[in-house]
Specification:
The structure is a homodimer of 271-residue chains.
Chain A: E1 3-11, H1 28-40, E2 47-48, E3 57-67, H2 73-84, E4 95-103, E5 113-124, H3 126-129, E6 142-144, H4 150-158, E7 162-165, E8 181-193, H5 199-202, E9 206-214, H6 221-233, H7 241-248, E10 263-270
Parallel strand pairs in A: 3-10, 5-6
Antiparallel strand pairs in A: 1-3, 1-4, 2-3, 5-9, 5-10, 7-8, 8-9
Helix pairs in contact in A: 4-6
Chain lengths: 271, 271
Amino acid sequence: MFKNILLTIAYDGSGFSGWQRQPNARTVCGELEALLSDICGALVQLNGCSRTDAGVHAKGQRASFISDCPVPAERLARVMNDRLAKDRLEGVGEIRILEAKEMPEDFHARFDSRGKRYVYRIRAGWGEAGSGPDVFSRNYCYQVREKLDAEAMKKAASYIIGTHDFKCFEAAGSTPRESTVRTSYSLEIDCSPAQNSGPATGAALQDITVRIEGDGFLYNMVRIITGTLVEVGQRKRSPESIKDTIASLDRSRAGHTAPPQGLYLDEIFYQ
Amino acid sequence: MFKNILLTIAYDGSGFSGWQRQPNARTVCGELEALLSDICGALVQLNGCSRTDAGVHAKGQRASFISDCPVPAERLARVMNDRLAKDRLEGVGEIRILEAKEMPEDFHARFDSRGKRYVYRIRAGWGEAGSGPDVFSRNYCYQVREKLDAEAMKKAASYIIGTHDFKCFEAAGSTPRESTVRTSYSLEIDCSPAQNSGPATGAALQDITVRIEGDGFLYNMVRIITGTLVEVGQRKRSPESIKDTIASLDRSRAGHTAPPQGLYLDEIFYQ
């Protein structure tokens, strides 16, 4: 009996060349397909919802596959996690299956999704704190030297919410798409003193979280939006300038592409 | 003019086969010696203070070397960090030099040290929280399924403070030493709700920090003490039983060896 199974997946992207399978690179999709093919005793192909880049993380990636897998869906997460965490005391691997669930036969993880939320993590102010960047955070956030003006970033973010042609926030050289109009439902910026920093430096470091929800995202869109917001926070550009940047439809008018390690695919929405 | 230079070093041990140089493995000492030899234009040998194991981290490792390095000590940290962080936007490598300082010619990083502090990080309670272990913490703490009784662990820790023959906490098969008597100056246990865990699970997860200072440590001593304290926290052994365990001088009477990724060499003391 063939079943259509939907996986919810968390992964640390640090050690992977992204999600999408590639012939000669270690990818999240490639690892999971090899594992599932072994468990199911037949070749499994995963339909992932989002092709995260090398170094980008996920807390709620989704992928579906059709298989006559002998393991019932309700036991599959456990069976997969045991294999993914092998050799670790009480441990966990780089990938963890958060849920496996049987879906109607016509369900497709990507085509049926209605939107996504990404989170981008920044730690700012290591220059002023005198601490330098932190080796333990290097794969998990964007460490910016200057403290950032979070209020200016929030103001700038307000111009990005809504339905716009976001061509200025699409990586140059991307495959042309039918439309570069997208809707961002919300764009929140939280700023708090950094946790786990030493008493001497704690007061000076900022943990800034950029949280964006939308119906779809262009290639590198969240990273370019974040890079642009960081430049607003550094007072290199004004919050109001974002309006003109969007209207220009010109990638070269927007800011730099923030590095991959700060980006987390947080959740995918259905219905 | 030959100078004696002392480095203070932080590193993420996840990707290294430990500190000590080895012919066919990537080690922290090996990487730094290669870099320093290149910068100084002559072979450099580092005298490290502590031989951390594979996967163990450091926030304050110390190592000294003698060289006629053309870079002045006050510029050396910056020159090394630029090379260690190459290809990263505002970034940092796996190793970061926190300080480089010229010392008297008879100074030696290991022989002149008077003690060390280690920190061991535990995140406990993922079973009850229903969250499972976290992929992003897997290289940085010991993720224990059960919530732990921190008060019992503190009670147990009180028996470990002071001067004792700690043979029961030395890895079996270690090279015999002149003496297995050591003094632990302090052993603190802090327990707080885990940070950065989701709102649903935050209340149930514990971040537990074991902080131990002493004049010296036997091989795997901190990890065996931590494993024993975790078993007290799981109520598998009583706090008072630690007295008999120490008196037995028998490794098999102590608890399991906690995994390497939770351990941080925090600071080394001089004078």
